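Lab notebook, bench 4. Still working through the backlog of constructs that have no structural model yet. Next entry is a single chain of 318 residues. Request: give me the structure tokens for it.
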Amino acid sequence: MKLKEVYESWYIFKKRQVKASTLSCYNLICINIILPKFGNTEIETITKKSIMPFLYELYDSGKSKKYCMDILIVIKMLVRFAADEMDVDVHDMSWKAVLPTDNKTEKNGIERYSTAEYKKIVDYAMANPSPRNLGILLTICSGMRIGEICALQWKDVDIANKTIHVCKTIERIYNVNPSGQKSTYIEIGPPKTASSNRYIPILKNIFPIVKKFSEICNPEYYVCSCGEKFIEPRTFRNYYNNLIKEKLKFDHTIKFHGLRHTFASTLIENNIDVKTVSTILGHSDISTTLNVYVHPSSEAKKNAVNSGLKKIFRLKNE
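Model written out:
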């Protein structure tokens, strides 16, 4: 049985099991990467030896380790589906792939803003109050994801308790069905994971501006638009990029998600315990917080070296 035949049955089956956004991610990997390479391959012949050269080729071309591992996950999913649901005799897929340690593609970008840049973003947003600037301000002072801030409504902001309830997210779903038809649509649904449904304290320094906006907005209004209609992530991301380049005139721009990285890193550098930071970010595992979202600034690294070794130079020579 060819892999493309398995995919057609798997797509219908998986559609009943996972969120539309998750299915979209899996499906795009299948349509754009896996099927062009292995679509006509008999699934009974797919083994580690046939898959790994392809992954190495992708990695050597500049693709990230995560990119390659995501492809492997979907391939294994298809093969296991063929075995479990279609009674096809396939090779064992319990093996693990080992790719080189990332040293060229994933660590070459700036993941966060410096303390001075952080302050400039906050100062600008507070000095130029608008719904979209409030969205930027809340993001960099709470660590919310772009889909979460775009889906945030004023009814989710508890002024009395000074908290924000992150209870939904907005996404544009890219759909390609097995026949090749393409479409996109906006979906508002629950947050990324159960841990992502959380309450975040509103920073006291920005609470007055949040309160002023809340007083003139209907509870059903969206925070980033102060209106009945939401701003979709793509539009809000474009606004952010323009703000950084044209208004603040930074000599570099990091992705919108870097605001979340900046928030997390700043808390850790100021000795906030990792578990608390992880809970605020909505992570189920603190290792994600440490390994993915914490990027010490140059200033923090200098302070670490100077503080950590200062006692050495106080010792008298014996």
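Notes after review: The longest strand covers residues 169-176. The two ends are 78 Å apart (CA to CA). Flag for follow-up if needed.
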